[in-house]
Amino acid sequence: MTLPDTPTPAPTELLVCTTCRPADWPREGDAAGQLLHEAVQVALMDQAQPALRLRGIACLAACGRGCTAALQARGKLTYLFGDLPPDDQSASQLLAVAAQHQAAADGLLPWGQRPERLKRGLLARLVPLDE
Known about the structure:
Blueprint lengths: L12 E5 L14 H14 L7 E5 L11 E4 L5 E4 L6 H16 L18 E5 L5
Parallel strand pairs: 1-2
Antiparallel strand pairs: 1-3, 3-4, 4-5
């Protein structure tokens, strides 16, 4: 007797806008979004999240709400977050919520279970594409 294969959840992809510059951020030097992306890269090296994919995106088109990041996976809800400070705390909380997204079959991130910074700043939650 063979057991049915358990479907492997689709890997979560964490997108971080690398060009975000909040209104009070200087135009010279690194963009705040680039600093957030780098902080997430460093934090990711310290964790074992093999299913997570990190990708820097030149623009997530939420310029008035920078820094921004999104979570997406095939067959799951997509989330877009804004107003994230470009620091280590945002990086670790993004990785924590990405792990929650990965673990949820539908990608649902209940408000009360999200890390503190990701309880606010939600810009969009999009339904999965039909497959």
